[in-house]
Write a structure and sequence with these properties.
Strand order of the largest sheet: 1-2-3-4-5
Largest sheet: 5 strands, antiparallel
Shape: elongated
Number of strands: 9
Oligomer: single chain
Number of helices: 6
Distance between the termini: 64 Å
Structural class: alpha+beta
């Protein structure tokens, strides 16, 4: 469950994982905690942080501060991403695939936390290799950093790319929903009210 951060505008925070480590010392075992946190404004800005401390609350607080310093912008079209992309970190690979409106975020807990706080609402995902939470989060951010706007690609190639496939899907969906809304709200004509009878 995301919590709203105080004194940070519209930023929300989700704790993806809390990890415990133990160091064996002369007097026994000494525990320390680390936490992985994702923050975002659900409007195209998202970041992650990893903090360590002797106590869980202070570890989370440290991670939130680090995440706030590393916010990145995510280019989106509507409620999804512009194109398919694959991010890598270590032995983890995450593929992000744009989806039609109404699909939702099809992802596990870790990837979902990043995408939802970034504002992505329609996306298909698949993880390959290691499912270590820290590596998966870094792989997702690597994938998001590889996203490019169609205008940037068109400028580099010196060509007009036209509409992308996902842009066509979004437009088609808007037309369908627009037709449905218009037919349900239009007032009945005089001919329909009288049952088609003419005087």
């Amino acid at each position: 469950m995301a919590e709203i951060l105080k004194d940070s505008g519209n930023l929300e925070s989700t704790t993806v994982g809390v990890f415990r480590t133990a160091a064996t010392v002369k007097g026994g075992r000494r525990f320390s905690f680390s936490s992985l946190v994702v923050i975002g404004d659900r409007n195209g800005r998202v970041g992650y942080g990893y903090g360590k401390s002797r106590e869980v609350p202070s570890a989370i607080e440290k991670a939130q501060k680090i995440a706030k310093r590393g916010l990145t912008d995510v280019p989106m079209i509507g409620r999804t991403i512009h194109h398919e992309v694959e991010g890598r970190f270590g032995a983890s690979r995450v593929r992000l695939i744009p989806a039609s409106p109404g699909t939702g975020v099809v992802a596990g807990h870790t990837v979902r936390a990043v995408l939802e706080l970034a504002g992505v609402q329609d996306c298909l995902t698949k993880c390959y290799g290691s499912t270590n939470k820290i590596n998966v989060v870094k792989a997702v951010f690597d994938g998001l950093s590889r996203l490019r706007l169609p205008e940037e690609i068109a400028k580099l190639r010196g060509k007009d790319l036209g509409k992308t496939e996902i842009a066509k899907r979004i437009e088609r969906s808007r037309k369908l929903t627009g037709v449905g809304a218009a037919s349900s709200t239009e007032p009945a004509t005089e001919n329909e009210q009288t049952g088609g009878e003419t005087s």
